[in-house]
Every structure is written in structure tokens, then in C-alpha cells.
Amino acid sequence: MKFSASKTRGVLPGFRLSLGYTVTYLSVIVLIPLAGLAVRSADLGWSGFFDAVSSERAVAAYKLTFGAAFAASAVNVVFGLVVAWVLARYEFWGKGFVDALVDLPFALPTAVAGISLTALYAENGWLGRFLEPMGIKVAFAPAGITVAMIFVGLPFVVRTVQPVLMDIDIQMEEAAATLGASRFYTVSRVILPAVIPPALTGLALAFARAVGEYGSIVFISGNMPMKTEIVPLLIVTKLEQYDYAGATALALMMLIASFVLLLFINLLQGWVRRRGGGDARAAR
Amino acid sequence: MANQIALRDTPWVRRALIGVALLFLGLFVVLPVVAVFTEAFSKGLSGYFEAITEPVTRAAIRLTLLTAAITVPLNLVFGVAAAWLIAKYRFWGKNALLTLIDLPFSVSPVISGLIFVLLLGGRGIFGPWLEAHDIKIIFAVPGIVLATTFVTFPFVAREVLPVMQDSGSDEEEQALTLGASGWRILFQVTLPKVRWGLLYGVVLCNARAMGEFGAVSVVSGHIRGETNTIPLHVEILYNEYNMAAAFSVASILTLLALGTLGAKKLIEQKGGGHG
């Protein structure tokens, strides 16, 4: 199919310039550096790559990272739905302030979150002093990693679900109620189906963020190999030991994992859009 | 209207849900912020000001400001160019381009730093060449700027694009008919239309540029007073068990975050903000 360029592209000037600039800048800052990672892992060869990514220590780090990320995003789905519901449906004093607070984990530098959460959950911290006597160890334990991941992933589910809840046609709920449906029936048959796709999108976004998170976790985790060592930290450790090959291999694994997640998120967002929901992309 | 909707849930359910939401946010969001300021002032006002004005802290603040001053304009120009390209023209590969622009968001900060070490570090692909020409990028300021630019790459494009798409091209096309040049259309028609989206993108980009930890930590080399940004300085103080000072410096970043949220609310109220 051939069209004359100016008619199909649009009439405004600047196509070549903006295309050239965008592609060049994108290549220099993003594509070439990422390609470098692929080139360096090719140097490793299959066996080297396999050894690096399947060591006992690496496997322990995967289990911990993905397990904690899953637990954290599950918590975020449950509470994120409650927060989104409250913000979308109720009026109460200070709601605007509460709504702004939801975005704080996006704005607060991760290192600050890390030291602050550690101070709260440490043995003598405001929360730790109550939890530790009960036998619940959070700081310097896997639970602490989960807590940090809950913090960084907190806004995602709220921000994907909230616009959808606000968009749901109230008339549908009214119709259901008029036809004699109980509140429970209305919620489970009218609201829940609309909320599942954005909630899953939020879950996936929070999960992806948690898996890659570093700054807030290094402080609270204690960083013990095999016990509280997450994958991003293992990458840094390898780099500091000049084990570039090992670091590269692990990074490539993580990168592949995040691309798979990205693909999944895009599919979910397509689903949300087809259902006429809010723009979930805006949530990031 | 809103109250009518709220009536659908019994007051008991409503109170319980609001309570759960506030408790969750209080525990995970409010408490950490309160803890930062409490710890920051644990050695009194004088201890606080001493910590944030000592020379190494000042050097870290300067480096962070410098990094943001280079990174934000770079990504601002890119954001406008990319948004213009995607909003104003139809072309093959547009969706792929959008996905590529979003890419840095899905890369772990640590990997964002690592890729530049692998490319430009001493043992990196271009390492020997750079060394032969006596150019130091990794474990130096240029590396910090590069990694920060990568991490904050999508912010402006991502905020400006939807606003530019929503505002359409009618006015631009009229300006073109009246004989305005492309640059004039951009500066006098398009940019004023998308100014709030643009401002919001800049605010977010700046917050991340000043607060980035993981990527910068990998490329910085942690040289005190030279390649330490504010977040890295917080880490050093913390690891030296100098808690009050660590939290004092962290409080600067916390204020930045609170300011960012305030700016977001303000921009939303001005009516142009997106998200």
C-alpha cells in the first residue's frame, strides 16, 4: 500500500525532524545501552549463562524476590480495592488529602522509604517494639522485603481501579437494585466484573515494580545471601566483585521477566479499554 | 448525587471501609513520612541544620541539582518532540515506538545502571576507547547524568502526549493556513495548549531525577563530596549509623516529594493535568 506521505501522515510540518530526533535520542539513551546488555551476555555462551543464572544463590534470590513481590501485590490488590472504592464512592472530610497521599510512594525517593521503614520496624522502632515481642520479625527478614514492596506498589491498584469505579454507570446498579437484587448480588454481578481487569492490571504493574525494586529494600532486608538477598541486590554484589558476566546474566533474566510482564500488562490494558474502562496507562 | 450513591452501602459498611482504607494508608504512607521528620529532629534543630549544611551534604545537594538541571531539559525536549510526532502524524510503527518509550519504566533501576557500566565502564564495550582518550564516564558525574536520563526518560513524553492528543490539531492547521511556520505553531499554539501536562511531566521527571537511588548507586562509585547525590549521601550516613544526619538529609527529599504531590494537586485543579 502506497500513499502520498503528506496526505496520510498529516499536514503539519516537522515530521522528519521530530521522527529523526525521537529515534536518535531513544537509540542513544535507551536502545543502544540495552542492546549492550544482550551483546555482553552473548559473550558468556550457553553454559556460562546457565551456570550464572541457576546457581543455588541465584535460585534462592528468585524465590525470595518473586515470592515477596507476589505477597506484596496480593496485599495491594485487597487494600487497593478498598481505597479505590472509598475514594470513588464516598464523600468524607479530608478526601482530597487522602487521594493525594496515595501517590506518595511514587514521589518519595526509595532510599528515604527504605531507611524510614527500617526505623519503624526495627526492634526498637515504633512498630517493631510491638511486633518483635509477639515473635513477628519484619526488619532484616523476608517480611520486611514484603513491607517495602507493598509501599512501592501501593498506588498502582488504586490508580487503575479508581477511574473504572467512577465510570461505572450508576444506572446499572440502580437497575439491578430496582429489579430486587441484593447489595451483595449487585456488587458481585455488576461491579466486580468491571473491576477485575483493572485490578489485574494494577496487580501486574505493582508486581513488576516490586520485582525490580532495590532502593527501599536494601535497607530493610539485611541482605543475607540465601536468606534475604533479592535479585537486584545479587546483581549489584556480583558487579562489586567484578563478576560482570554473572551480573549480566542475572540482569538479562530479570529483563526477560519484565518484558514478559510488560506484554501481559499490555494485553490486560487492551482488555480494560475494550470494556470501556479508564486509561490504566495513566496509573504509572 | 454522590451522597445518594453512598447511601447504597449501609453507614456501618461505609465507616468500616473508610476506616480500613485510612488505617492502611496511615500505616504504609503517613507513618514513614512522620518517622522521617521525627528522626531528623531527634538531635534538635541545631543538629538538623548542622547535618544539612555540612560541606559533604552541600556537595551532594549541588550534584543532585546539577544532575536534574541537565536531565530534565534533555527529557523535556525529547518529550515534546516525541509527543508532537505521535500526536500529529500517522505512520507505521507508532505503537512499537510508544512501547519503546515506556521501556525504561519496566527496567529495574539496578539494571538501568548496569547497562551503562557494561557499555562505558573500564571493562565495558567502549571502555578501552574511552580510557585511551582519557574520558571518564562511569564512577564520575557523566555516568550519573546518563543513568538518571535513562530512568526519567519517559516522564515528560508520557504526560504531554495524552494532553496533546486530546487537544487535537485544528488550531495548528488553521495557523498553518494563515502562514505560520512549524516552529511558530509549536511555540505559540501547541505548547500553550499543553502547558499543564508539560509542567506535570517536568515536575515528575524532576522528582525522580533528584530521588533516583538504584541506577545512580551502580554508576556513581560513591566518592564522597564528588559523585554522591543526596540519596547516596543518605545511604552513606545511614550505614555509618549516623541516623539523625541520615534522616535530616532524607527530610530534604521528603519535602521534595510532598512538594511534588502538592504541585500535582495544583496542576489537576488548573484543569490541564493528566493522571
Descriptive account of the structure:
The complex is a heterodimer of chains A (284) and B (275). Chain A has 284 residues and is mainly alpha-helical. Chain A folds into 2 domains: 14-45, no CATH class; 55-283, Orthogonal Bundle (MetI-like fold). Helices cover 77% and strands 0% of the residues of chain A. Chain A has helices at 5-9, 15-53, 56-89, 95-101, 104-107, 110-121, 128-131, 142-167, 170-178, 183-212, 215-221, 231-240, 244-274. In chain A, helix 8 crosses helix 10 (183-212). Chain A is globular. In chain A, 48% of the residues are buried. The radius of gyration of chain B is 23 Å and the shape is globular. Chain B folds into 2 domains: 1-40; 43-269, MetI-like (MetI-like fold), CATH 1.10.3720. Helix content of chain B is 77%, strand content 0%. In chain B, helix 6 (109-120) runs parallel beside helix 13. Chain B has 15 helices and no strands. The two termini of chain B are 24 Å apart. By secondary structure, chain B is an all-alpha fold. Chain B has helices spanning 2-6, 11-40, 44-53, 55-88, 94-102, 109-120, 127-132, 141-151, 155-167, 170-177, 182-193, 195-211, 214-220, 230-239, 243-269. The chains are: A mainly alpha (284), B mainly alpha (275). Chains A and B meet through helix 2, helix 3, helix 4, helix 5 and helix 6 of A and helix 1, helix 2, helix 4, helix 5 and helix 6 of B.
